[in-house]
Specification:
The complex is a heterodimer of chains A (157) and B (836).
Chain A: H1 2-24, E1 36-46, E2 54-61, E3 66-72, H2 77-80, E4 85-86, H3 88-94, E5 96-102, E6 112-123, E7 130-138, E8 148-153
Antiparallel strand pairs in A: 1-6, 1-8, 2-5, 2-7, 3-6, 4-5
Chain B: H1 6-35, H2 42-45, H3 51-61, E1 73-79, E2 85-87, H4 93-98, E3 114-116, E4 138-141, H5 146-159, E5 171-172, H6 185-189, E6 203-208, E7 237-239, E8 243-253, E9 256-266, E10 273-280, E11 286-294, E12 297-300, E13 302-305, H7 306-318, E14 322-330, E15 333-341, E16 346-356, E17 358-360, E18 363-368, E19 385-389, E20 400-404, E21 409-411, E22 414-422, E23 427-432, E24 437-441, E25 446-451, E26 462-468, E27 476-481, E28 487-493, E29 507-514, H8 522-536, E30 543-549, E31 553-555, E32 561-562, H9 565-576, H10 586-594, E33 603-610, H11 617-627, E34 632-638, H12 644-653, E35 658-661, H13 667-678, E36 684-689, E37 694-699, E38 712-719, E39 726-732, E40 735-741, H14 753-769, H15 777-787, E41 795-801, E42 812-815, H16 826-829
Parallel strand pairs in B: 7-21, 8-22, 10-42, 19-20, 29-30, 29-33, 33-34, 34-35
Antiparallel strand pairs in B: 1-6, 2-3, 4-5, 8-9, 9-16, 10-15, 11-12, 11-16, 13-41, 14-15, 14-41, 17-18, 18-26, 22-25, 23-26, 24-25, 27-28, 28-38, 30-31, 30-32, 36-39, 37-38, 39-40
The chains are: A alpha+beta (157), B alpha+beta (836).
Chain lengths: 157, 836
């Protein structure tokens, strides 16, 4: 009897393990059935009282679980006309998303403003793990300004 | 030990066997669930079609012209719906204050990311049902020092998105709940698009039969969806299409054009659609920017590996997201797809590209192609571009299909176009070959030209020619310092003046005329007029041959004959009897023209007169490379929308030149021009002394021969400062001639040069891959295209609006039908037409 129960338990354990292994193959967007979700993040820069004329931001996904699928323009008219540029080489070779933009409009934003929105595809049942570096922020004259960059999940349109 | 009975032994063996069977079965069931979407080609392989295959079949067979059918629910597809995600942080309250994130809604010195939503407090892991092992978050680093910022800023301003080494400043980490404390997160999530109460719950999407359904145009009682139906004469049938308008805005500086193309899509139907549009661009276009506009939001597309981009697009489409995908079918043929356009909604696609202009005897030529001509594909070829009627989906059997409007049909799709020319030297004359232009504003060195609104049907190439001051231009060098610090240059080399004073040696002239159905009518009459003039331009010591081809090839004489008056008269009569019908087996024309011994006493010139409407370009180019020997090929693109990619490549591969004979050109005039060019020897075996420039990656690798009035363009990279004089030397018979170029005459920065260089390199690699095994060309091309954000056959642009969430399933796939090119007969060229 014990022998039978032990065999049964062993088989059941193996059964469960095999199911888990089969599901584990799902990770990554390379398989069409992988859990995939599309999300967006708003990227803000707070330049305080200074006028924001240009910026460069470096974003890296440590988990390598996401893919950028679009870069949207910002909210203020200075950064709304055209989406920021991204560096294709950095994206292709290092998986870094390097965004940069500048504006030549008269009225530049001060305080906190949304400068970009990132559209991402997250692949597999894992969490993205992003790092965000504000590489540079400058005013209309090209002079560096003290600023901070933040990101929040985008809501609505 | 108690002896084991027989019954016990059986049970001991049977139970494990049964359980092992169950184990195997469960594993296969689990695997089957995980692979059902991946089995894309199982229908081809003979197994039962997978979900993906069914999905594709439904999408691809849905067509406006097909019959109505009631929507019926079919088998449900289970989709694991992920939760909308709240925001999660690692945290450090002190750091938050220091780095300025006082309002608490962002991330400074921390991480951002997504987590399954659940009530959480600062400092806690959040998630449902349990915290994940790895939190999605972003760490933000502090700003760099002042001087470094200035340098970086200048990089940013001058070089768009130049990557710089990330300065690892003090890392401030924050953890923060993206939602306010004490708020009911689940209530908030209810407002989220696609929100579900729990991550583990499943959403059952009931798919509906789409095979026979169709989207219906909204009638007059549904105004407000845009005016896609054209106001046309009563005898023409109005055809609703999801492409409303194409706007082209080009600027030309020196010989480099920057072109913005905006395609305005709108859904005139009563249900959600996917728009599919196959369209042309110049064969040397370096497409490196793609922006999708949804409402007033502009989303930049991302360059990706083609398969990866396709997969992202498909997944976004299935998820109900507005998405777009741009792929390249040929260097001059592209497919644009826009998914999930809801009724009455509009989406714009903006494409930007650079390219170099052609120059010929004092005239620059800028071309914008408007329609892909109907291609002929030899039997057995499946990778071509098929020409089908509007209702003839998949009728051609080709991987890419263009749907054509019947002659009595018109769509509301029209085009506007504006070109701003800054020639740098005085513009003396300017003309449009095929279109009416207006607002020819400007004077001196600059002009602005607009396409007349009276000529806005996109059924022929827009060809703008402008003549600059003097009989000839000077050789010139353009430079640009690229994003990666490397220099890029483009150099136009003009032949030295003295070769125009020398006479040519006798020639063996082979005229090869395309007599296929697509040439019928005015195109073949134009071509015959050109050949007749060519025959009469031959000198007494020349020889000639006339070859015709359609389904097969035949020729005027057994071998090239002396250009005597009698022979020319007979040949002219022979040419007059030729007409257009049948297929375009160009390979037969190639064989007939190149498969016979070369006359050592004469230079052999082979002139192809064709619209190039074929789908097997690679096969033709490979055959030319194999059989060329000492021949030179001059290609004449005939008609309103010739295949310029094929024409240019044939001439390039054949060490000759290309010319175009539009329906409004004089056939005799174009041939006179050709004879003027070959009436002088070419400058051959060119060598370039770059002086003080340190150059690399110069393309084309072999500089082509220079003919009178026809410059060549080479492009490459350089380091340091362009200095010294560049000397180009070559042979004219037994003499050596030289061209000198001064780099200091460069007129400034040319931002498109990096893209132009990369595009030229890709073209060179593609050409070589046709006859040379040089490693993994595909990988090399893909890497280059990804690095330079360039379209290629191995890369594609994809853009997804993650915030959009359209209702229902993936919608109906609707192709944008196009008119046949002006002068091309629909009945003899389009599969599924009444005449085919």
């Amino acid at each position: 009897m014990i022998q039978r129960i032990a065999t049964f338990v062993l088989i059941c354990g193996t059964l469960a393990l095999s199911t888990v292994l089969a599901r584990a193959d799902d990770h990554g967007c390379e398989q069409d059935n992988a859990p995939v979700r599309f999300i967006a993040y708003d990227i803000f820069i707070d330049a305080g009282k200074a006028e924001l004329g240009a910026y460069q931001i470096d974003i890296h996904d440590n988990a390598r679980a996401s893919k950028v699928v679009g870069v949207e323009a910002g909210a203020h008219e200075a950064f709304a006309d055209k989406p920021p540029y991204y560096d294709p080489k950095a994206l292709n070779n290092e998986g870094r998303i390097v965004l940069a933009a500048y504006s030549t409009v008269e009225e530049l934003p001060t305080g906190k403003t949304r400068v970009a929105r990132l559209h991402m595809q997250v692949c597999g049942d894992v969490d993205a793990d992003f790092e965000l570096d504000l590489i540079v922020a400058a005013d209309a004259d090209g002079q560096p300004i003290t600023a901070t960059a933040t990101a929040t999940p985008a809501e609505g349109k | 030990m108690r002896p084991t009975s027989k019954k016990q032994t059986v049970i001991t063996i049977a139970i494990p066997l049964f359980l092992m069977g169950a184990l195997a079965a469960s594993y296969f069931i689990a695997c089957a669930q995980s692979t059902q979407y991946a089995m894309k080609d199982d229908a081809v392989r003979g197994s039962a079609p997978s979900e993906e295959a069914q999905y594709r079949a439904r999408t691809e067979t849905s067509e406006l012209a097909e019959a109505d059918a009631e929507d019926e629910p079919v088998a449900g597809t289970r989709i694991q719906q992920n939760m909308p995600h709240a925001f999660a942080w690692s945290e450090d309250a002190a750091a938050e204050y220091e780095t300025g994130d006082i309002d608490g809604d962002g991330i400074v010195g921390g991480r951002f990311g997504i987590q399954p939503a659940a009530p959480a407090e600062v400092g806690q892991s959040v998630g449902t049902p349990a915290p994940r092992s790895k939190k999605e978050a972003v760490r933000t680093r502090g700003v760099p020092g002042r001087q470094e910022v200035k340098n970086l800023f200048m990089d940013s301003m001058g070089n768009k998105s130049k990557p710089v080494p990330a300065r690892r400043g003090r890392r401030n980490r924050l953890r923060e709940d993206g939602f306010a404390s004490g708020v009911d997160h689940r209530a908030q999530l209810a407002n989220y698009p696609g929100a579900l109460p729990s991550e583990d719950e499943e959403l059952w999407i009931i798919q509906r039969v789409t095979t026979e359904r169709r989207a219906k145009p909204r009638g007059d009682d549904h105004p407000g969806c845009g005016a896609l139906l054209a106001k046309v004469p009563q005898q023409e049938k109005q055809v609703p299409v999801p492409l409303e308008h194409t706007a082209v805005n080009a600027s030309i500086s020196a010989y480099i054009a920057t072109v913005d193309v905006t395609q305005k899509y709108a859904n005139p139907f009563d249900r959600k659609i996917e728009a599919v549009y196959v369209f042309p661009l110049p064969q040397n276009a370096a497409v490196n920017e793609f922006i999708m506009t949804v409402g007033d939001r502009k989303i930049r597309g991302i360059i990706r590996d083609r398969d990866e981009a396709q997969q992202i697009y498909d997944q976004a489409k299935r998820a109900g997201k507005v998405a777009s995908l741009l792929t390249q079918e040929r260097p001059n043929v592209f497919t644009q797809k826009v998914a999930n356009i809801e009724p009455c909604k509009k989406i714009d696609i903006n494409i930007k590209y650079f390219h170099t202009l052609a120059y010929d005897d004092g005239w620059y030529e800028w071309v914008f192609p408007m329609v892909v001509g109907p291609r002929f594909n030899p039997p057995g070829n499946t990778d071509g571009i098929g020409a089908v009627s509007r209702a003839g989906r998949d009728a051609s059997g080709q991987s890419t299909e263009v749907a054509y409007l019947a002659p009595n049909e018109r769509s509301g799709h029209d085009i506007s176009l504006q070109v701003a020319v800054d020639a740098g030297v005085s513009i003396e004359r300017i003309k449009s070959v095929n279109h009416v232009i207006e607002n020819n504003a400007g004077s001196g060195t600059e002009r602005i030209v607009k396409l007349s609104s009276r000529d806005s049907i996109p059924n022929k190439d827009f060809v703008l020619r402008y003549q600059v001051a003097g009989d000839r231009i000077k050789s010139a060098l353009l430079t640009h310092q690229g994003d990666d610090g490397a220099g890029y240059f483009s150099m136009m080399i003009y032949p030295p003046e003295e070769i125009g004073r020398l006479s040519r040696q006798p020639v063996e002239m082979i005229f090869v005329l395309d007599c296929s159905g697509s040439m019928r009518g005015k195109p073949i009459e134009q071509a015959k007029a050109a050949i007749t003039r060519g025959l009469r331009s031959l000198q007494a010591n020349d020889t000639f041959q006339v070859i015709r081809f359609s389904n097969s090839a035949s020729q005027f004489g057994d071998r090239p004959v002396i250009a005597s008056r009698e022979n020319i008269r007979d040949a002219v009569r022979y040419v007059e009897t030729l007409d257009g019908s049948g297929g375009t087996m160009m390979i037969e024309g190639i064989k007939a023209a190149l498969d016979f011994p070369h006359d050592e006493e004469r230079l052999r010139f082979v002139t192809f007169l064709t619209d190039g409407f074929i789908g097997n370009e690679a096969q033709i180019l490979a055959a030319i490379h194999e059989k060329l020997d000492a021949s030179r090929i001059f290609s004449f693109g005939v008609g309103s929308s010739p295949n310029r990619f094929l024409m240019n490549r044939m001439a390039k591969m054949g060490n000759g030149a290309v010319a175009y004979l539009s329906l409004n050109d004089s056939g005799a005039g174009v041939m006179d021009h050709f004879f003027k060019r070959i009436s002088h020897p070419a400058l051959t075996d060119l060598k370039i002394d770059w002086g003080g420039m340190q150059v690399s990656d110069v393309y084309p690798e072999r500089v082509p021969d220079l003919f009178v009035g026809r410059p060549v363009i080479v492009t490459g990279r350089y380091s340091g400062i362009a200095s010294g004089r560049i000397r180009v030397t070559g042979n004219v018979g037994d003499r050596i001639s030289e061209v000198v170029i001064n780099p200091h005459e460069d007129r400034g920065a040319h931002e498109g040069l990096a893209a132009v260089w990369a595009r030229t390199k890709i073209a060179d690699m593609v050409d070589r891959s046709m006859w040379q095994q040089t490693g993994d060309i595909a990988t090399q091309i893909k890497q280059l295209a990804l690095d330079y954000s360039l379209m290629s056959q191995f890369t594609a642009f994809v853009a997804v609006d993650s915030l959009s969430q359209t209702a229902g399933d993936f919608g109906t796939s609707v192709r944008v039908p196009v008119p046949t090119p002006d002068g091309v007969d629909y009945d003899t060229t389009v599969t599924g037409s009444s005449g085919s």
